Amino acid sequence: MGTIIITVGAISGITGILAFLLTLAKNTIGNYGEVIININDDEDHVVDGGTTLLSALIDEKIFIPSACGGKGSCGYCKVKVNEGAGPILPTELGYLTPEDKKENVRLSCQVKVKNDFKIEIPEELFNVQEYEGKVSKIVDLTPTIKHLTFDLKEGEIDFKAGQYVQLRAPEYKGNDEEVYRAYSIASSPSKRDQLELIIGYVEEGIATTYVHHHLEEDEEVLFNGPYGDFFYQDTDREMVMVAIGTGMAPILSILYHMVENNINRKATFYFGARYLEDLFFVEELQEIEKKLPNFKFIPSLSRAKEDDNWTGEIGRVTDAIEKYMESGENKEAYLCGSPRMIDSTVELLKEKGMQEELIFYDKFE
Amino acid sequence: MEGLNPFVVFFASIFTNNMILTNFLGMCSFIAVSGEIKTSLGLGQAVTFVLTFTTVLNYFIYHYVLVPLGLEYLRFIIFIISIAAFVQLVEMIVERYLPNLYYALGIFLPLITVNCAILGVSLFMVIRDYNMIVSLLFGLGSGIGWTLAIVALAGIRKRLKYAKVPKGLEGPGITIIITGLMALAFVGFSGIVQIQ
After folding, report:
1. Which of A17, A306, B2, B96, by CA, is between 20 and 30 Å from B191?
2. Could you tell me the pLDDT band of residue A71, with boundaries at 50, 70 and 90?
3. What local confidence, expressed as pLDDT, does residue B105 receive?
4. Rounded distance, CA A271 to CA A278, Å?
5. Do residue B69 and residue A87 have CB atoms under 8 angstroms apart?
6. Chain A residue numbers touching B39 (CB-CB < 8 A)
7. What φ, ψ does residue B109 adopt, rounded to 5°?
8. Which residue intervals define the domain FAD-binding FR-type in the entry (chain A) (predicted)?
């Protein structure tokens, strides 16, 4: 019994003294006090020194993308540090390209904040957060396209009409890697506790297979966002919107935004599908047409079948634009869909006299 | 070990009983950080510093705490704890006051915590029953010997960049072979003094 007490006492005593010394050192030598991180020459954030830049920014609710969680093994958490970081550490070398080094780009999980910093972060990252959601509704729009509604478990998402989120597809039977895939938000930016996505099925697509074959109502999902520089521009120009398939999502968001804010700009939405069964949200869009007198919806079928009794446009979206749009001058365009459709549409719009800077697009690849 | 000349132990620990080249202790950082002469010299200095002070620290803990209490068998766990705490302390000091050394060593500094050369020296000191002065010089000498070995290896590796190394042996493979050759060369010193 005596030996046990002596043993435990001795080890505890020595460990205790060392722990005391370390704590003392941490609060004196390791204490860097408060330091200031200046972001984009604009905002000053006061943080406790001594931690990594990544965790200091997370404490300030600024989420830098990081897949490995600060272990220095993914190389995603790059941030431009203009002042304060000191020389590049050996642990960063493997992830920085020669351009990165020239541009003062550093791995924020390795750089420690010990003095005042000046950093640059893309504006859109300020808003990016991770969200947990619950699937509240799944509706089949066409045989290959589903409309999903998620309720956010907590917090609100603040996005611009046209932006996208990254949805996480977890591991499931037949897929052993976790992936994130981008999907445009189809709901109105004013609905901040809910999110709607339109997701098409892609043969052997990891995320689309997950959504179409595994995801059920009431299940939980994880996504982050919002991202993207494709969004509604607040001008008075006439709008030309072009989409095919799931590319309708960001356009819908823009239209909801216009309806809610009573923005009655002249706008035409050219939507392309193959068969009648591939058309969706037609009634929804006709409803919007009633609310926005200057808005016109022009669906076009490229391969209408005999028994579809289709009386609308026939051909590709570019054919419809060719037919209805006389000139592209003083108009702006929002294109969303496959790269092929976008490339040919951009070509046509430029021919019609539209300025290239006024053609905004989001290529779904 | 009465009458052991401290300076004999000091030189022996550098050359004939080199921690790396005769005992093969402290290999992981020896191989990982030997790419640059400057960095390896920095790590060598850190190891020397830590070795000298932990050996003395452990000497006092062993002879003034563990032996009187009859707890010699606890030396492994106690030595590990005291080395870990000491290294962390050194890391904090280096990070604050010697930023250049910190930038050169970066993440490798905590590696010293698990550098077996350091635990090895403390244990040899106990096994060989060295007194205070001898232990101090043994620690210092072992550190210098370790530094010598890693700087020499870094120098060789620098030249190696221009050599045609077989694909499968690039990096650690050829490094271990070179370490073996260096150890053979150091065996040549073994006739001078012997402490084991």
Report:
1. B2
2. low
3. 63
4. 11
5. no
6. 90
7. -60, -50
8. 128-233
Place of tokens 């509240």: A136
A87 CB neighbours in chain B (<8 A) are 103
Taking each helix axis as running N to C, give the angle between helix B37-61 and helix B132-160, from 0 to 180 degrees, rounded to the nearest 10.
Answer: 160
Tell whether B133 lies on the interface with A, counting CB pairs under 8 A.
no
| Residues 6 or more apart whose Cβ sits within 8 Å of residue B36 | B154, B158
Q: Please give the structure tokens belonging to residue A257.
A: 């935004």
- Same domain? A192 vs A265: no
Element (H, E) at B138: helix B132-160
- Reply yes or no on whether the pLDDT at A29 is more than 90: no
**Shared-domain flag, residues A73 and A104:** yes
Q: What is the pTM of this model?
A: 0.55
Q: Please report whether residue A89 resides in a domain.
A: yes
Average pLDDT for residues A54-78, to the nearest whole number? 77
ipTM for the complex? Answer: 0.73
A307-346: string of b/e by CB count within 10 Å (b at 16+)?
eeebeebeebbbbbbeeebeebeebbbbbbbbeebbeebb
Task: Please choose, from the candidates B20, B2, B22, the residue with its C-alpha nearest in 3D space to the C-alpha of residue B194.
Answer: B22
Q: Tokens 């050219």 sit at which residue? A: A270
Which DSSP helix (H) or strand (E) runs through B175?
Answer: helix B172-187
* Number of domains, chain A: 3
Lookup: tokens for A173: 């039977």
Q: CB–CB of A268/A318 below 8 Å?
A: no
Residues sharing a CB contact under 8 Å with residue A313, sequence separation 6 or more, in sequence order: A298, A299, A300, A301, A319, A320, A323
Domain boundary among the residues A180, A197, A227 is at: A227
